[in-house]
Structures are given as C-alpha cells and as structure tokens.
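I am still getting used to backbone structure tokens and would like to learn alongside you. Would you supply a protein for us yourself, any chain you care to pick? Start from the sequence, derive the backbone structure tokens from it, and show both lines together. Go ahead whenever you are ready, and we will take it from there.
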Amino acid sequence: MAVTIKSEPEIARMREAGRLLAIMHEELEKEIKPGVSTWEIDRKGEEIIRGFGCVPNFLNYNGYPASICVSVNDEVVHGIPSKKRILKEGDIVSLDCGLIYDGYHSDAARTWVVGDTSEENKKLIEVTKQSFFEGIKYAKDGNHLHDISAAIENYVNGFGYGIVRDLTGHGIGRHLHEDPAIPNYKPIGKGILLKKGMTLAIEPMITLGTWRVKWMDDGWTVKTADGKCAAHYENTILITDGEPEILTLRNA
C-alpha cells in the first residue's frame, strides 16, 4: 500500500474523526478509578463512539473482540477488556482506540494512573508522552520519516527506558493501518520523505525495563518480557507546510 497524500476534503473528515476521538479519550479518563473493570471501560468507550454516529474501528479488526484496547501495568498494547480484570490503586492503564467518521479513521492512545501510583510509574508515563512531542518536532514537509524515530529514541535513551521494537506507528486514512511503518527507534536509512498531506499515527511504547515483549495465548495481548510496566502515547497527526497538526488532541 503506497503512502497516501490526503486531499482537503479527506483532511476535513480526518480532523473530525480526530476531534471526536479526543473527546472520547477525555471522557474515558473520568472512568479510570479503582474498582472499575476493563470491560466497563470498553463498554463506555463504544457507547461514546456510537453516540457520535461513528464506528469503533478496533472492534473485529482482524478478529479483535472489543472496541477499546485496555492494557494494564506490564501489558504494552492490545489488552482485551474483561469483567474479571478490575483496576486497583497504583495500576497504570493504557487505552488505545480509534473510530471511523465518514469513511476515515483516527487512532490515539493514552496511559493513565489508577488513583495514585509510584513516582517511577508517573515518570515513565510523562517521558512516554513527551517522547511523542520530541518526535513530531521533525514531522515536517521535507524531513525524513526516521528523523521522527531518531528524536524519540534519543529522548527516551536519556532516561534508560526500553523502547519496544516489535510494534510501530503507521500511516492512517481510509484504512486504520497504512504505509509507512513508523519505528520509535532509529533504523538503518532515512525513511521516506515527508510530504504535506500525509497523515500518520505516531505512538511511542516505552518500558521500565527491557524492550523485549511477548504475546499472550489470547493472540492479542502484548506484555513486557520482564514483567515491568509499560506506557503508550499516540496521536494521529497531519504533515503540513509548517508545524504538524495533531488531529486527536484538542487545544494542541
């Protein structure tokens, strides 16, 4: 699949898809508290998305059984919501989700604290979020894709955290996952030339320990190999002729 340049009408649809997803994340943050099941978070998220007249794009995507990926502590991504998984004080929980508005996708992730947690976990969440913003400083027309990757890696390395290598960001538009793949570390080569009109989902996944991960028997949940906590932060962005536009963050 070639990297697509979006037209103005397409960008308008993606802006609205992103705006609605940002609102949904703001609403789901209010649900993060001790005693809540991950299933309840998923139900609330789907209810909000359908209330917008949109479709949750994760539901049944390659067989994924829920609308919101809810990943707790050492779960990096793709945690499957369950009535039996109850959030408790001190947990950290990552919500990854998206929606389809008028045929166009948005995708974003946030990591939240359940009640209060350790300073170590708080710092991990803060650094993960900031690494996204360090990366998109280079998300400009005329730069190369791996300039973003290198900036994320350079920032995170300063804290000694692990950067998950088995999962990447991606292009997005009429499809949830489009070219190009966007690593959160600097691979060999420059990567493609960034051009105005490209829409990308940039999503650092950072760990307190090793970058290595393992897949669980459910076929979806990805955990850190050493059992240490992970954080995830993602937004859908638009490459412009100036600073990138963050589509899934209000008042960006």
